């Protein structure tokens, strides 16, 4: 009897591991290793400008965040940014999804147009809005001026409040389509009989939305909330191009501060600590969402 | 030979891995080249200002010396970060451009080697302005040969001033505001003053120029912050900026969205009457092929708080030699060609840059060169130009390792002042706190 014939066949589990091994190795090398390494770096004093001062300092970078004014300010800005972006995104996405869920002429075209911003990279989105908000040649100034709403052109991004609001709107515009798709998919799974039954029960439009559509949308909403919170918390490119974090630190979010700390100040230790804090906060918020909404959502009819 | 399934898979995997293996090997070999190839090629890096002209000058060097140069221009906005990353990864250049504000950190990082004792270096340092020599020296050692230097001026459009009936540039900040108001009230320009005040990684020379212009400083000689002390120059300059931006509204609020190039373009399009920037920009502004304002742009001293004292800020860009270069002799020849003196004891490249682009020079001898003065007269008043060089001072915190962090905070604070988000008193207090914290953190 040959050796091959004597070998016992692999179990399904072993085969599954063997077949997935190449992908798992690549993921470990390209994803897991950098993540673990960045945590290791966050435990060090590690500024490329001062290689001789590099050493292990434990949780000192994390402790320093508690008294780091720049970090605390960026955290406040980020939290507000998430609230504003999330609020506008969810409300607008719900409205758009409800509209697009109806049958009407031109629905396909409107759906295609609504998806367009999603295809746009953040930097391009930032550049486009920057052109629109330009103080000298911006389309917004031109439009408002032609409508007779303003006498002279305004520099919209030069006040703290203006810069924050317009940056948040640019972010909403970019990420809205994704939320619309998710909610539209959720709406399309609602059996029409439920609406019919609600109509028989003389439920109005708002009641049908509150009693029929919303419970079915809790799971899609959960996905939207988690992903959009993560997106807004990590928002960088649009803000960087539009305001660079200014005026002052009015739009300096934690992601922007992180990039500045790592790339401009070359402080990889502190920058990695910032990145881990962003991760931890996002994780906590996601767990909170799941705890709050997951059990309430019900696919059973 | 009959192939079974196992053999087919094995050969397929081998074949698939070949491109990866070969690219890894080639990456390794290119790393060798970067550290100095066996043929003596010098790996040279600089920010991307006029890369074609740099290459043109390097071609001349190659013809004269038979030394190959592998030149890589890097975008200015990312220059510092990319070079630091390269040195950290062990693949840095052999010779490179260095900003005066990066010198201390890069020496501390072990990226650069001193040039003391190398041929001709002492002659170079003896022939340049003391401020430039100081900017290229760290802890008593010489690290660079000069690329260019410049100081800031008030740059104004004499044509626009004339239309408003103004015959001479302002000497004080109060006068500058009054003149700008006159232009504004005459309906010539809504915002006569424009400054590049968008957050960026490069220094805001105009803030330093305004502070130095009134004989003030952010730091004392021991590099302790003095902006919030009895020396009120910084606070008063901030107060003037806030007033010009928010009360008299002569300073364009869109400045907060402007980088230097758009301000240059606005000056050339006659959309601003005044700005503060490097002297060499006047050459571009006065070029009829590029500028509507050609012939109208003049330089003046930086207006001060009292109109009596004057000063400005200077900067020095230099060529330096990497600590770990394997082609030290060739790299030093290149650095000498670019920043030093030629066989005739003349600074060829420094003159090349002035004649080509009007870049300021560190060599005292060039001020008397007839070709240089003739070229200078085409875009600036040589007397004002020389006076600005004479009164210019470099920033006195360039040797601290936390300079970049301070400069970034300065930008934010000045933006807050301009956009009325803070008061001048709070601004200087905030800057003092930042400097104190940074000093402690880096101690």
TrEMBL record, chain A:
<dbReference type="InterPro" id="IPR000515">
    <property type="entry name" value="MetI-like"/>
</dbReference>
<feature type="transmembrane region" description="Helical">
    <location>
        <begin position="209"/>
        <end position="227"/>
    </location>
</feature>
<keyword id="KW-1133">Transmembrane helix</keyword>
<keyword id="KW-0472">Membrane</keyword>
<keyword id="KW-0812">Transmembrane</keyword>
<feature type="transmembrane region" description="Helical">
    <location>
        <begin position="163"/>
        <end position="188"/>
    </location>
</feature>
<feature type="transmembrane region" description="Helical">
    <location>
        <begin position="108"/>
        <end position="129"/>
    </location>
</feature>
<dbReference type="GO" id="GO:0005886">
    <property type="term" value="C:plasma membrane"/>
</dbReference>
<feature type="domain" description="ABC transmembrane type-1">
    <location>
        <begin position="75"/>
        <end position="289"/>
    </location>
</feature>
<dbReference type="GO" id="GO:0055085">
    <property type="term" value="P:transmembrane transport"/>
</dbReference>
<keyword id="KW-0813">Transport</keyword>
<keyword id="KW-0762">Sugar transport</keyword>
<dbReference type="InterPro" id="IPR035906">
    <property type="entry name" value="MetI-like_sf"/>
</dbReference>
<feature type="transmembrane region" description="Helical">
    <location>
        <begin position="79"/>
        <end position="101"/>
    </location>
</feature>
<comment type="similarity">
    <text>Belongs to the binding-protein-dependent transport system permease family.</text>
</comment>
<feature type="transmembrane region" description="Helical">
    <location>
        <begin position="273"/>
        <end position="294"/>
    </location>
</feature>
<keyword id="KW-1003">Cell membrane</keyword>
<dbReference type="Pfam" id="PF00528">
    <property type="entry name" value="BPD_transp_1"/>
</dbReference>
<feature type="transmembrane region" description="Helical">
    <location>
        <begin position="21"/>
        <end position="40"/>
    </location>
</feature>
<protein>
    <submittedName>
        <fullName>Multiple sugar transport system permease protein</fullName>
    </submittedName>
</protein>
TrEMBL record, chain B:
<keyword id="KW-0813">Transport</keyword>
<dbReference type="InterPro" id="IPR006059">
    <property type="entry name" value="SBP"/>
</dbReference>
<protein>
    <submittedName>
        <fullName>Multiple sugar transport system substrate-binding protein</fullName>
    </submittedName>
</protein>
<dbReference type="InterPro" id="IPR050490">
    <property type="entry name" value="Bact_solute-bd_prot1"/>
</dbReference>
<keyword id="KW-0762">Sugar transport</keyword>
<dbReference type="Pfam" id="PF01547">
    <property type="entry name" value="SBP_bac_1"/>
</dbReference>
């Amino acid at each position: 009897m040959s050796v091959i014939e004597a070998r016992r066949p692999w179990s399904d589990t072993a085969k599954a591991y063997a077949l997935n091994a190449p992908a798992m190795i690549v993921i470990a090398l390209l994803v897991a290793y950098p993540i673990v390494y960045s945590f290791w770096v966050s435990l060090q004093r590690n500024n490329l400008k001062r290689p001789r001062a590099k050493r292990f300092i434990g949780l000192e970078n994390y402790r320093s965040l508690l008294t780091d004014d720049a970090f605390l300010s960026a955290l406040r800005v980020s939290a507000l940014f998430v609230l504003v972006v999330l609020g506008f995104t969810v409300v607008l996405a719900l409205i758009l999804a409800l509209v697009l869920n109806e049958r009407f002429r031109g629905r396909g075209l409107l759906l295609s147009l609504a998806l367009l911003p999603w295809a746009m990279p953040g930097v391009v989105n930032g550049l486009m809005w920057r052109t629109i908000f330009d103080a000298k040649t911006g389309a917004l100034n031109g439009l408002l001026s032609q409508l007779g709403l303003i006498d002279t052109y305004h520099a919209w991004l030069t006040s703290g409040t203006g810069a924050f609001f317009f940056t948040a709107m640019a972010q909403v515009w970019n990420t809205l389509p994704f939320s619309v798709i998710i909610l539209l998919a959720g709406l399309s799974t609602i059996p029409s009989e439920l609406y019919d039954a609600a109509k028989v029960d003389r439920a109005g439009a708002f009641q049908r939305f509150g009693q029929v559509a919303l419970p079915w949308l809790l799971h899609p909403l959960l996905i939207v909330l988690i992903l959009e919170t993560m997106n807004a918390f990590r928002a960088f490119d649009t803000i960087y191009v539009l305001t660079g974090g200014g005026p002052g630190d009015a739009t300096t979010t934690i992601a922007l501060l992180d990039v500045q700390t790592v790339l401009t100040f070359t402080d990889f230790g502190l920058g990695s600590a910032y990145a881990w804090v962003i991760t931890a906060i996002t994780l906590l918020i996601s767990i909170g969402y799941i705890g709050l909404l997951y059990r309430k959502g019900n696919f059973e009819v | 030979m009959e192939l079974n399934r196992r053999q087919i898979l094995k050969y397929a995997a081998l074949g698939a891995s070949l491109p990866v293996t070969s690219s890894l090997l080639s990456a390794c070999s290119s790393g060798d080249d970067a550290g100095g190839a066996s043929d003596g090629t010098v790996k040279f890096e600089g920010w991307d200002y006029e890369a074609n002209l740099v290459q043109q000058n390097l071609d001349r060097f190659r013809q004269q010396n038979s030394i190959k140069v592998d030149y890589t221009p890097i975008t200015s906005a990312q220059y510092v970060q990319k070079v630091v990353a390269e040195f950290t990864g062990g693949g840095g250049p052999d010779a490179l451009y260095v900003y005066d504000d990066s010198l201390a950190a890069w020496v501390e990082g072990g990226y650069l080697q001193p040039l003391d004792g190398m041929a001709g270096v002492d002659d170079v340092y003896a022939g340049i302005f003391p401020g430039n020599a100081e900017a290229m020296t760290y802890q008593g050692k010489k690290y660079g040969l000069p690329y260019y230097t410049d100081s800031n001026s008030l740059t104004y459009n004499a044509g626009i001033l004339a239309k408003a009936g103004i015959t001479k540039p302002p000497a004080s900040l109060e006068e500058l505001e009054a003149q700008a108001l006159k232009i504004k009230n005459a309906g010539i320009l809504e915002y006569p003053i424009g400054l590049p005040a968008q957050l960026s990684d490069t220094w805001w020379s105009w803030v330093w120029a305004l502070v130095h212009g009134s004989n003030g400083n952010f730091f004392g000689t021991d590099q302790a912050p003095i902006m919030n002390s009895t020396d009120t120059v910084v606070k008063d300059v901030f107060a003037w900026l806030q007033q010009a931006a928010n009360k008299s509204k002569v300073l364009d609020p869109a400045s907060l969205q402007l980088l230097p190039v758009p301000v240059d373009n606005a000056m050339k399009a006659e959309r601003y009457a005044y700005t503060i920037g490097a002297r060499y920009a006047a050459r571009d502004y006065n070029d009829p092929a590029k500028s509507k304002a050609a012939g109208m742009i003049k330089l003046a001293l930086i207006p001060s708080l009292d109109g009596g004292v004057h000063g400005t800020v200077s900067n020095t860009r230099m060529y330096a030699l990497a600590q770990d270069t394997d082609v030290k002799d060739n790299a030093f020849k290149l650095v000498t060609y670019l920043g030093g003196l030629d066989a005739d004891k003349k600074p060829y490249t420094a003159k090349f840059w002035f004649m080509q682009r009007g870049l300021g020079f560190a060599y005292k001898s060039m001020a008397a060169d007839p070709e240089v003065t003739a070229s200078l007269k085409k875009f600036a008043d040589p007397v004002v130009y020389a006076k600005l060089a004479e009164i210019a001072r470099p920033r006195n915190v360039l040797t601290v390792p936390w300079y970049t962090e301070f400069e970034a905070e300065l930008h934010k604070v000045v933006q807050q002042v301009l956009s009325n988000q803070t008061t001048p008193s709070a601004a200087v207090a905030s800057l003092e706190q930042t400097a104190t914290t940074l000093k402690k953190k880096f101690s």
